[in-house]
Amino acid sequence: MRLSQWRSEAPTREAMSQKVLAVVQPVLVDLGAPDDPDCWVYWGEDPSARYSILAPTLRGLAQCHVRVNVPGEGPRATGKVVRWGRVQVGELAVEVSHGHRLVTSQLEGLVLKGVDEIADRVASFILTIYDAIDGRPILSDSHIRPVAKRVRTTSRRPPRQPIPLPAPKE
Questions:
Q1: By three-state DSSP, how is residue 136 classified?
Q2: 65-77 burial, b for 16+ CB within 10 Å, e for fewer?
Q3: SS3 call for 81
Q4: Which terminus of the chain has fewer CB atoms gathered within 10 Å of its CB, N or C?
């Protein structure tokens, strides 16, 4: 998902105000990300005060840590690039229960998790990170692999029986 799309999903209006983005975007660009990068925003426990942005770049994972309102200064953003060989990423775990999917993974000490549609976004982002670590091209959000359609777990039809094979000729 692009950074501009995350703005509409911000838990508080101030978290991604124009004033905050004016501080964030130069940091991301200097770290090698495009103007409106595909990224993941980790809101954390208090997104009105601080959050983190993770964006894959050609050279590594750009991390931008945002403080929304520093007393007496306004918003502040700091960042760094972690080279792909040093990025700490956990396994991608998927659990399906009662027709819902739960996806979790860990990236640079942050736990990314989501249910159903958000699970699709977490999985796509983590798979993009895996691709980058393995040296494959980083795909933009318009080219991210399609996520398989959900299988209905409550079907009213009985399961299909296998077709018997003809007996072998002797």
A1: coil
A2: bbbbbeeeeebbb
A3: strand
A4: C
Torsion of CA 131, 111, 77, 82, to 10 degrees: -40
CA dihedral 145, 151, 99, 8 (to 10 degrees): 30
One-letter identity of residue 137: P
- pLDDT surpassing 80 at residue 66: yes
Segment 155-167 mean pLDDT: 56
Token digits of residue 136: 């494959």
Tokens of 47: 């997104």
Distance of CA 24 to the CA centre of its chain: 18
pLDDT of residue 145 exceeding 80, the answer is: no
Helices (H) and strands (E) in the chain, counts: 3, 7
Domain ranges of the chain: 3-143
